[in-house]
Amino acid sequence: LVVYTGERRDYRGSSGEPQHHDANEAEKSPSSLYHLKKHQQRPTGNKSHCFSDCGKGCKSSSELTIHQRIHTGEKPYNCDQCGKSFTHSSCLIVHLRAHKGEKPYHCPDCGKSFVSSTDLKSHQKIHTVEKPYNCTQCGKSFVTSSHLTIHQRTHTGEKSYSCSQCGKSFIQSSSLISHQRTHTGEKPHSCDQCHKRYSDKIYLIKHQKIHT
User: Fold this and answer.
1) Which portions of the chain have biased composition (kind: Basic and acidic residues) (predicted)?
2) Which segments of 44-184 does DSSP mark as H helices, in order?
3) Which among 20, 38, 64, 168 could disulfide-bond with 50, CB atoms 3.0 to 4.6 Å apart, if both were Cys?
4) Where are the chain's structural domains?
């Protein structure tokens, strides 16, 4: 195996005349590039680089162990709430927040909260996309016309959704549905820690903070 060092050297051919091979010629040779790449992938005395069977390089043996779970399907971290399994402990930690109602990552643009930084980054894309629907009252922009319509009701005071039980009105149908549970007694949101139930998910999330 020849490893090219970039130095110019003279080699004697069959004619006995010096034959010159410079850096540019060596770089153009597919054979040289192939062997150089294979050489660089070989394990060396430096233990900080480990290679998986698929060729992926890892900085440590622990990183290699985690990566290999992709190939073996091993998921050693289990959720004691629902039994779901994960390849990495950090994934389990993020998953458990869904059970606890924890959302530590907040959007600086709209205040919406998320269980992971990945979900927050994905959400923030909606703030960078085109928003062609503008409110003439305050200038706020929206992605869809329906979102603009709902927003404009905060300026006009329009509340199109009324409760048939008490007559209370709301801007959105979702707010009406949540309100009607106060009449029916329905509490679909349950705490997985103490089993206390709530009519609205917002109240459940506030309650779950006492367990953390």
Assistant:
1) 1-28
2) 61-72, 89-100, 117-124, 145-156, 173-184
3) 64
4) 130-159, 170-212
